[in-house]
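Q: How would the C-alpha cells look for this protein?
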Amino acid sequence: MTDSAAERDQPAGPQGPEPELFRRAVASLTGTGVRREVHVQPLRPPQRLAPYSFAIAADVMAGEHHGHQDEDAADARDLATGRLVLLHDPDGAEAWDGVLRLVAFVSAEQDPQIGTDELLPGVGWSWLIEALDARQAAYRAAGGTVTQTTSTRFGDLAGPRTTVEMELRASWTADTADLAPHLHAFVDLLCTAAGLPPEGVSLIPSA
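A: Here is the predicted structure in C-alpha cell form.
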C-alpha cells in the first residue's frame, strides 16, 4: 500500500506487548459485523509505519450483492477491493494529531461513461467524507489522493475495449478506540465505489 504523507517517515519499532488502547481498537474492528456482500479477512500489516499495526482486506464480489453467489464462476470477480490499516504510536505523531491512524485503500472499476469525467476524483473523495460523517465516525486530519486510470484493449485481448479504474488512498486520525463506525464507513465507501445501493435498499431487476 502506498501511504499518504501523514504516514511517511514515522518511527518504527518492534511490536512488543500491545498497549491496551491498541488492543481495544483492534477488538472493535474484529468484533464488528459488516454487510454480507463484503468479504473481510485479516491481512499482514505493514511493519515500518508505526510501532503497532493491524490490517484487514475487504472485497465486494460480482453477483453477491443480490444475496447469492453467481452460479457462473466466470462472473466471480471483484467489483471493488480495499484494505484498511490501523496504526498506533503511543508517543503520538505530529502529522497524525493523535495516536491512532487509519489508512485506507480502495480500488474499483467504474462505468466508462462516468469514469472519464474529470470530476470523478472529487466525487470519490466525497464518498469517503460523507461515509465518515454519516456513520458519525469521530475523525480529524484526513488527507489522501484519488486517481482515475483509463485502459484501452487492442487486438485479441478479451474484455471490454475501454475500462476505467478509480483508486482512493486516504488516511485519518480516530479520536477514540471505538473503530466500528470507521469500519462501517470504509465498507460504505467500498460498496459505493462498487456501484452497490445503500444497505437495505434493493434494486428493481431489469426485464
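The first helix runs from residue 20 to 30.

The chain has one domain: 20-67+77-153+160-194.

Upvote if useful.
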